[in-house]
Structures are given as structure tokens and as C-alpha cells.
Design goal:
By secondary structure, the protein is α+β, with helices and mostly antiparallel strands. It starts with a helix and ends in an 11-residue tail after the last helix. The longest helix is centred in the first third of the chain and has 29 residues. The strands form 3 sheets. The chain has a 5-stranded antiparallel β-sheet, with helices on both faces. It has a 3-stranded antiparallel β-sheet with strand order 1-2-5.
Length: 337
């Protein structure tokens, strides 16, 4: 009994330390006060929880446990009142959410993004209603956008049609004007999730030509019927987000995890893998699972997948010529006829 009592106390103490760190982050990122006040609140919270954890090993363990329970309950009650919204002063290109409807083989999307970017702050906005014939859907491409080293990448899927058009889909953190991306802040309800559908010359060119990031494109081994299911699952997800906003979360609800869950919805047998979280290695995982073109060993395929230099060279080309140009030398890609 003494052993189990000791084990229980250590488990409670570790839980208290975890809540101390999480609560400090929640207060820092969400408390509606100036930075000095938030810093003071974080300090008081850490003293309360860490002091309570130490108190578990004293003669006042029940008082310490009761104080911590009340504090955690109060914080969680406040936390539950912080709700996502679709109303906000959004950053450029994030102010509209795509919606879709299907009539037979015709997919109609409203607010498809087709911006002309000169810089991240200088652009010509263009939101369009577009129609796509699902009977002409022939391919899916996986794109990995690297901007902070190999382990982390933003994941996109692009759907190709036999008429040469491509529709790229991006699940992103919906930032407000002046807000900067923060992986740590993304754990604490600092931004909602947004589903964007757009022209490749917008969404890919923004990353390759304007931000000068490393983007890699891989042709997926996907039958048209499966490609259709994945695309329509994206549409359902976008419609749901437009009606019921959700929080972005760096670990659990981000560009890669949402893509994984969407693909898994139409391919239930796909196992979870650590590379879904360490998203820069998602292409390696997809290759191992036979989801990518396998005509080359993966190291060679990875080198041929790097499209940023071709995108920069094709900067002046309109769509769909831009899309054709960036796929030159990509294994598995056949130009539209």
C-alpha cells in the first residue's frame, strides 16, 4: 500500500507540473491583459501549481490537492469560453473560405483564390467561382513546402484534370493582420483553421517565387475514383469549416494531420505514423506505402521533386502553362493533351 500511495503521489505531482506548464502557456497567449500582467499571472500560476505539487509530499497533501483541483477547474472553465470564429480582421488571402457543391459530375466552388502576388503585402486579389468536371479528374499530386528545415513542411494536395487545369488545396492557420506564425502559439488557440482552394499560380507561386521557399511535388499513385473521393472529402471539410469554425493546433489539427485524416476517410487501412506529425518526412512515409511514383529510388525522386527553380523560371507564364512548367521532369507526370 505504501508503494502504491507513493506512486499515486508522484503521478499527481507530474500531472500538476504538466498543468503548470500548459496553464502558463494558456495565460500567456490568451489572457486579455498587457504583457506585464500576463507575465505576473503566469508566475502566480506556476507558484500555485508547483507549490501544490511539492505540498503533496507534506502533511498538507489534501489541502494542496484541493487547491490545485480548484485552480485547474477554474482555468479549464475559462479556457472553454474561448471559442473559434469566422469573423475577424484576416490577413490578405485568408479573408474568405471556400465552399463547394456537386451536381452530377460538376463541382462548383465559390471563392477559389487566384491572387497575383508581387510580395506578401502587395497583391491583386481575385476570388472566383469555378466549375470542374469530376469525370475529367485524372491525378493527385502531393506538395511539401519546406521553410524551416527538413523536419517541418506544409502539406498540400493538387488535383489535376485532363483539360490541363489544376486545383490545389491548402489547410492553413488563419492569421489575422499583423499576426505572425507561431508553432508554440498554435497550441493555445491563437488562430483558427482555414481551408483554401486555389489556382496553382497563386498558392504555389506565393511560396516558390515570393517567399522563395523549397517546394517539392510528387505524383501520387491514385486512381481517378479515389481522387474524386478525396477531393469531395476536402469539399465536405471546407463546407463544415465555413459553418463551424475550429481551432488550428500545431500538433493535432494542422495542414498535415487534416490531410492524413481526409485521405484516411477514403482509405481506412492507412496506419498512423510518426511522420504525420514530423511532416517534413511525410513524402518518405507515402513512398514507403506505395502512394507515390516509384520509378526511381526515393533519394532521386526527392531531388527531381524540387520545383522552386522551375517555378521561378516560369514566373511570367499564365495558368495552366505555369502548372505544366513546374512539372517538367517530375516522374509520373504526363502533359495534358
Amino acid at each position: 500500500m505504501r508503494f502504491f500511495r507513493s506512486l499515486s503521489l508522484w503521478a499527481l505531482a507530474l500531472a500538476a507540473v504538466g498543468f503548470a506548464l500548459w496553464g502558463a502557456g494558456a495565460l500567456w497567449f490568451q489572457a486579455p491583459f498587457a504583457a506585464p500582467v500576463r507575465l505576473l499571472l503566469c508566475g502566480l500560476w506556476l507558484v500555485l501549481l508547483l507549490g501544490g505539487a511539492a505540498g503533496l509530499f507534506s502533511g498538507r497533501r489534501w489541502q494542496a490537492l484541493g487547491a490545485m483541483a480548484l485552480a485547474v477547474a477554474a482555468l479549464l472553465t475559462w479556457w472553454s469560453t474561448i471559442l473559434p470564429t469566422n469573423e475577424g480582421d484576416w490577413a490578405g488571402g485568408l479573408d474568405r473560405t471556400v465552399r463547394g457543391s456537386v451536381d452530377g459530375d460538376i463541382l462548383t466552388l465559390t471563392d477559389v483564390r487566384d491572387f497575383d502576388w508581387r510580395s506578401e503585402s502587395d497583391f491583386t486579389p481575385r476570388w472566383e467561382t469555378r466549375r470542374y468536371d469530376l469525370s475529367k479528374l485524372v491525378s493527385v499530386d502531393l506538395l511539401a513546402n519546406y521553410w524551416m528545415g527538413e523536419p517541418i513542411a506544409h502539406t498540400l494536395l493538387s488535383f489535376g484534370f485532363s483539360d490541363g487545369r489544376f486545383l490545389v488545396w491548402s489547410i492553413e492557420m488563419r492569421l489575422r493582420k499583423g499576426q505572425q506564425f507561431s508553432a508554440l502559439g498554435g497550441l493555445f488557440k491563437t488562430a483558427e483553421l482555414i481551408s483554401l482552394a486555389g489556382d496553382e499560380r497563386d498558392i504555389i507561386r506565393l511560396r516558390t517565387n515570393v517567399r522563395r521557399e523549397d517546394v517539392r511535388l510528387f505524383r501520387m499513385n491514385t486512381r481517378p475514383v479515389v481522387a474524386r473521393e478525396i477531393l469531395l472529402t476536402y469539399v465536405d471539410e471546407a463546407n463544415d469549416l465555413a459553418d463551424r469554425p475550429r481551432w488550428y493546433n500545431t500538433l493535432t489539427t494542422n495542414c498535415t494531420t487534416v490531410v492524413f485524416h481526409i485521405v484516411r476517410a477514403v482509405a481506412p487501412g492507412m496506419p498512423f505514423d510518426w511522420r504525420v506529425l514530423v511532416s517534413g518526412y511525410l513524402p518518405d512515409f507515402a513512398y514507403e506505402r506505395g502512394a507515390l511514383d516509384s520509378s526511381l529510388p526515393f533519394p532521386q525522386l526527392r531531388e527531381k521533386s524540387k520545383i522552386s527553380p522551375r517555378a521561378i523560371a516560369a514566373d511570367a507564364l499564365p495558368s495552366p502553362a505555369f502548372s505544366q512548367a513546374i512539372r517538367t521532369h517530375v516522374p509520373g507526370f504526363l502533359p495534358a493533351r
